[in-house]
Amino acid sequence: MSDSHLTFFSLSSSILALLLIFIFIFKRKQTKPKLNLPPGKMGWPFLGETIGYLKPYSATTIGEFMDQHIARYGKIYKSKLFGEPAIVSADAGLNRFILQNEGKLFECSYPRSIGGILGKWSMLVLVGDMHRDMRAISLNFLSHGRLRTHLLKEVENHTLLVLNSWKHNSTFSAQDEAKRFTFNLMAKHIMSLDPGNVETEKLKEEYVTFMKGVVSAPLNLPGTAYRRALKSRSTILKFIEGKMTERVRKMEEENESLEEDDLLGWVLKHSNLSTEQILDLVLSLLFAGHETSSVAIALAIYFLPGCPQAMEQLREEHSEIARTKKQAGEVELTWDDYKRMEFTQCVVNETLRLGNVVRYLHRKALKDVRYKGYDIPCGWKVLPVIAAVHLDPSLFDQPQQFNPWRWQINGRRGSCSSSNGSSSTINANNNNTTNNLFLPFGGGPRLCAGSELAKLEMAVFIHHLVLNYQWELADSDQPYVYPFVDFPKGLPITVQNHSYLS
Ligand code: HEM
């Protein structure tokens, strides 16, 4: 065969092959049922709408991006976020459905950068059996029994350590103080580190650098916050590993009995986790347990001065508890005292509803799912936005108002605006429904393992704060979503010592 014949033959067979591929794709498209995706747009190639979605906004709102998308497309819409096609849900029913079907229809799926920094054994990124095992360890460490017997006392000690250091008429960052409290508490409970020790302070410093990387763009380039955070991560892990080695040696010397009743001791004695797994567990519990509750406490400090009626009712509740204790000759708070902090629980709930420490969760669809006539394709990212439900005016009356009374069965007194101080009507309706819609700690099999500890920390901190101090914002500041909630100026406050105990 001549060269020209050969060229002609191979050209025509390539054209035929291409034609067959086109026919095959066309046929497949025709036979595959058309998906009814939610409305929305996919934005730019690769980036999609990520930049608009992540643009900072006030934490007591849902932000311009969400507002506009919900107005245009409804509470369920499609988009392209974090480099992937995504379904965003501001729909209470779908959010609950997603969380309840964890492991069946949906699965936890945080961006790879989170795994890079928190570690591949971090609970936030684990799924399946390994997640179940790590979760069991965390729940044991944060159990109801431990809260009563160990943690209440520790929480009170650490609260007093921070509050007693506040000088009359001084001005400081309330956010930093809240972080000092939650970090010290976690470091003690996880590794028996004492507050103020050189090593605890060093670890805290490293942790600040580490946190800056967790919230930054995941660019592993020289000079970036992410690169610095990766370096801090390895310093922190080396530190924890040193503590582990010390502890193992001590266990061998003292024939298995250990003085320290902390998480590190517990996992070393009772689990089969590898060193790498223990390190990631300790690091991620420090992260989960310290960042979130410190923001929640800072939010309560921010909301309360705007609502004098709530402050007054809190002081009544806590003075009464303190008076009864004094009469009984008791000093430390007991579990019964905590149970008597009923209005405080309303303040805690309202702070979490309006401030939304965790705004949305990362999931992906494990199968093709149909919900309310919409298709959620297998493999797509799914973002249940819990904050959008908490701030939905069709579900919460005047959602921008700080109104702790909405959590009472029979709401009393007025409500206070978080933004302009004007008062409005009481909303105590829909209490049952409201409880179903309120998911500050997520839900389903991944419900926050530390939710009860977080509420305890907030209540005990509020107890001593309102009984001993008056405070006001020293500079205008407000919580922003970056997407982690943060106060740009650190929430500067001026405090006055004032004993409200008669
Ligand atoms: C106000 C404070 C807190 C808030 C708002 C909060 C919120 C959340 C949310 C929404 C999740 C679910 C994440 C998901 O499903 O993807 C979660 C998980 C978790 N939280 Fe919290 N949290 C708080 C405090 C704490 C504390 C004090 C601890 C204690 C160490 C803690 C430990 C955890 C752990 C271990 C998980 C993972 C649970 C799992 O995957 O099974 N959290 N938290």
TrEMBL record:
GO molecular function terms listed in the Swiss-Prot or TrEMBL record: heme binding; iron ion binding; monooxygenase activity; oxidoreductase activity, acting on paired donors, with incorporation or reduction of molecular oxygen
Cellular component annotations (GO), alphabetically ordered: membrane
Compartment annotation: Membrane
Cofactor: heme
Keyword Membrane set for record: yes
Top-rank taxon, per record: Eukaryota
PROSITE patterns membership: CYTOCHROME_P450 (PS00086)
Keywords, comma-separated and alphabetical: Brassinosteroid biosynthesis, Heme, Iron, Lipid biosynthesis, Lipid metabolism, Membrane, Metal-binding, Monooxygenase, Oxidoreductase, Steroid biosynthesis, Transmembrane, Transmembrane helix
Transmembrane segments: 6-26
Matching SUPFAM superfamilies: Cytochrome P450
InterPro entries: Cyt_P450, Cyt_P450_CS, Cyt_P450_E_grp-IV, Cyt_P450_sf
Database matches in Pfam families: p450 (PF00067)
Catalytic activity as recorded in UniProt: cholesterol + reduced [NADPH--hemoprotein reductase] + O2 = (22S)-22-hydroxycholesterol + oxidized [NADPH--hemoprotein reductase] + H2O + H(+)
Gene Ontology biological process terms, A to Z: brassinosteroid biosynthetic process; brassinosteroid homeostasis; sterol metabolic process
Gene3D superfamilies: Cytochrome P450
Entry membrane topology: Single-pass membrane protein
Binding-site residues for heme, renumbered to this chain: C448
Family: Belongs to the cytochrome P450 family.
Protein name as annotated: Cytochrome P450 90B1
Organism, scientific name: Arachis hypogaea
